[in-house]
Amino acid sequence: MFCHVLNWHGAVKSMAPDSDKRNFALREDGDESSVFSGGTPRQAALKAARRLEPADGEDQADPEEIRLREKGTHKVHIYEAWAWVEEAPDDKPDWMPGDITKGNVSKQGVEHLDEI
To answer: Where is this region: Disordered (predicted)?
Structure first.
């Protein structure tokens, strides 16, 4: 099911309802410390990547492995993730700080757990 809304340009845009969001638990040493939501595992991984210690630039960032288990399943999505700080764009809103953290991910695979 999709709903239609107007974006800020006035164009009609289809959006999935919040019920299409999936939850992914960040796994560290068997513990699930945080939960990130997204329509896809990659969206959740990008949110998790921004929580990493950021480098001074993307080319200086060291990738770290992150593992996200999709809640309600035994599937663990494995990503290389990295984060960096860069200057906010000139047209940023007033509330946005001058430097922002950006992140990126690269999928490495999926693992299936026998037990959660």
So the answer is: 29-67, 93-116
Give the 3-state secondary structure of residue 43: helix
DSSP 9: T
Question: β-strand 12-15 against 22-28: which pairing, if any?
Answer: unpaired
What sign has the CA pseudo-torsion 49, 37, 22, 93? negative
- 6, 13 Cβ separation under 8 angstroms: yes
Rg (CA), the chain: 17
Give the number of C-alpha atoms closer than 13 A to the C-alpha of residue 71, restricted to the C-beta side.
15
Structure tokens at 27: 């796994």
Q: In the prediction, which pLDDT does 20 show?
A: 85
Q: What distance in Å separates the CA atoms of residue 111 and residue 68, rounded to the nearest whole number?
A: 10
What mean pLDDT, rounded, does the chain reach?
Answer: 88
Q: Give phi and psi for 115, each to the nearest 5.
A: -135, 155
